[in-house]
């Protein structure tokens, strides 16, 4: 015998069955209507969280929108792990700079010992070959080779001219062994902080991308729940976009301007980052104004985010006219692809192509909103690649001031 609760649920299912229906069947579900060129695939009576979550694995006109950005969240979660595990640790000595330093020292010492070249040539050559082979297996193998070279050169007491080389090797070994402060981002060792570059701007971008993509997925999954839920989550969706725009420009601005004298660097960072953050915050607030969600505001919404994005490109235009701009050329290519992806996606979103020309043919996949989602995802991936490029470029620069 069924309980009262089970009877109530059974009765509700009979009276309000779950349906994937057409535009004309929505009736009291007018809040779902957004694009008159999408004729089928609307969810009706999915008025509980359980029902909505079940629809995650159903075929409807929001399936592609939900999963495209859920996939994006997963991708950026993996990229976060990669960035933490494999990207150069802030404050840590760049191994390649150690190798270059050692190479110059050895060449200089060998030139000073020209008259002993015949005797020591085989020793130096064999050690150099072994050292370059082991450069790709840095860590404990690298340290073992350095110690081996140090011991062999120390025993070669036929001449005192090797003492500067031995002393240099001792200093390098000491630096390799000094791990006490490698993990501290703000450790002020002059040698280490030249090429020890903070990763936090990249983490800000990754976090903003994950927030935006997750907000988008949640909105498209739950927008059939109720009118109030639809409106609230629509605001959250647009607010997430403003967060992404703000977060995107932190690595874009932070790394290229890093080599400025302190006062100018701080001024530019404050001006540009605070400017784009304030503009994004204003857009964030506007996103929660009820009328902002109206279908008639589609053009305004699209242009608002285009303008917001262009504000962020002002510092890139500034960078173009600076002496070091050519150093960041590769990164700028990725950022240009980011901008092109966003602009193309917005144009498709606003114009509702291709469903405008073939109503009802792109209800489940291939609509302008589906395409917009793919362009957003590709833009964020381009931006991540650009952020890595300017990070590594900044890491390779020597900018004493």
TrEMBL record:
Keyword Transferase belongs to the record: no
Membrane topology: Multi-pass membrane protein
UniProt-annotated binding residues for Zn(2+): 220, 369, 373
This protein's UniProt keywords: Membrane, Metal-binding, Transmembrane, Transmembrane helix, Zinc
GO CC, any one term: membrane
Gene Ontology MF term list: metal ion binding; signaling receptor activity
InterPro entries: AdipoR/HlyIII-related (IPR004254)
Transmembrane segments: 66-89, 200-222, 238-258, 265-290, 302-321, 333-351, 371-391
Cellular localisation: Membrane
Family: Belongs to the ADIPOR family.
PANTHER family membership: ADIPONECTIN RECEPTOR PROTEIN, ADIPOR/PROGESTIN RECEPTOR-RELATED
Annotated protein name in UniProt: Haemolysin-III related
Species in which this protein is naturally found: Stentor coeruleus
């Amino acid at each position: 015998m069924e309980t009262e609760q089970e009877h109530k649920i059974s009765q509700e299912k009979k009276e309000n069955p779950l349906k994937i229906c057409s535009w004309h069947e929505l009736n009291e579900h007018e809040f779902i209507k957004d694009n008159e060129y999408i004729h089928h695939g609307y969810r009706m009576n999915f008025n509980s969280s359980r029902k909505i979550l079940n629809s995650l694995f159903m075929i409807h006109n929001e399936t592609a929108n939900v999963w495209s950005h859920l996939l994006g969240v997963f991708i950026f979660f993996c990229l976060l792990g990669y960035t933490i595990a494999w990207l150069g640790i802030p404050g840590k000595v760049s191994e390649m700079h150690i190798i270059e330093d050692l190479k110059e020292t050895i060449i200089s010492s060998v030139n000073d010992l020209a008259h002993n070249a015949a005797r020591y040539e085989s020793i130096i050559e064999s050690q150099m070959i072994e050292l370059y082979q082991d450069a790709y297996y840095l860590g404990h193998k690298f340290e073992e080779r350095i110690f081996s070279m140090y011991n062999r050169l120390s025993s070669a007491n036929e001449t005192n001219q090797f003492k500067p080389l031995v002393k240099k090797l001792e200093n390098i070994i000491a630096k390799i062994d000094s791990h006490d402060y490698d993990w501290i981002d703000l450790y002020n060792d002059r040698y280490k902080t030249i090429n020890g570059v903070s990763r936090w701007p990249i983490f800000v971008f990754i976090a903003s991308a994950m927030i935006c993509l997750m907000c988008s997925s949640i909105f498209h999954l739950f927008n059939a729940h109720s009118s109030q839920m639809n409106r609230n989550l629509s605001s959250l969706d647009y607010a997430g976009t403003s967060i992404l725009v703000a977060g995107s420009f932190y690595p874009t601005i932070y790394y290229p301007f890093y080599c400025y004298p302190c006062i100018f660097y701080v001024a530019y960072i404050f001006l540009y980052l605070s400017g784009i953050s304030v503009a994004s915050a204003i857009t964030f607030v506007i996103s929660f104004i009820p009328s902002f969600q109206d279908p008639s505001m589609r053009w305004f919404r699209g242009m608002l985010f285009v303008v917001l994005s262009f504000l962020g490109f002002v510092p890139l235009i500034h960078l173009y006219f600076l002496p070091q701009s050519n150093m960041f050329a590769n990164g700028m290519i990725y950022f240009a692809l980011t901008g092109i992806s966003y602009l193309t996606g917005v144009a498709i979103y606003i114009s509702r192509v291709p469903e405008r020309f073939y109503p009802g043919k792109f209800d489940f996949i291939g609509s302008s909103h589906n395409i917009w989602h793919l362009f957003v995802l590709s833009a964020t991936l381009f931006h991540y690649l650009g952020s890595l490029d300017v990070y590594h470029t900044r890491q390779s620069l020597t900018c004493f001031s």
